[in-house]
Hints:
CATH architecture of the largest domain: Up-down Bundle
Number of strands: 3
Number of helices: 8
Structural class: mainly alpha
Amino acid sequence: MKTTRVLTVSFIVNAMLSIIKIVAGIVSNYSSLVADGVHSISDLTTDLVAIIGDKLAHKPADLKHPFGHGKIEYVTSLGISIVMIFLGISLITNSFEHQSSIPNMIVMLVSLFTIISKYLLATFIYNRGVKYKNNILIASGKESKADVLSSLFVLVSIIIIQFAPKVPFLIYIDIVGTILIAFMIIKTGYSVLMDNLSTIIGEQIYDDSYLNDIKNIVLKEKIIEDVKDLYILKEGPYYKLLANVIMDDKVSLKKAHEAIDRVEGNLKKYDDKITYVFIHMEPKN
């Protein structure tokens, strides 16, 4: 699957970056870089959860789940957000027990390399998420973007702490950087959490352009005179369409049924995410 391939690329890159940052942070005794590496490890964990969630979300419908398992995608994204919030809190509580030292130029170069690598990865994942309309990829992309900012904070803190011998209190910039990274992780986790809670409850699409296209497809059938109600609900990788249409009451049931079948086929051709279509017919008053 496309989503799984994207997540696999993310997993490989995050594995490489997390090892580089943690090793460099431990060797240099710089907690902000270690925290940044832990953030990348959280990406590894969430990538694995996301891959599993994506596969489960595409499981076919069964007797207990007649509309498929698409909402597993949102449950998976909730898992991602909870992991992020937990790691952020842990970083804050541990930061006050650390004594910092001044890192060398190699650590600065490592930080710069991770910023560039992570930015390219985050852009790739997020754009694919938007393209495929996949919440798992979008959530993972947002987390990766937060990781870019955290790496940027680390780079800035490394530069600032170089002046600590002349300005002693700057040695605490490492702790400040760690806390800032932690708050960024928590903020992103909270955002992902709220987005997916809304969708689990039952969120519909509000894109006016998309909805107008759907209405126009329905109204191409001459015997359908109007679309009274139209709702498109998100079901993970699928959409469920509910609509009430107005028809001439002189039309036979057979012709009405054939028209609805054609509408359903045209809707699925327009967007293959539209998997379940329920259209209620009402006679013209």
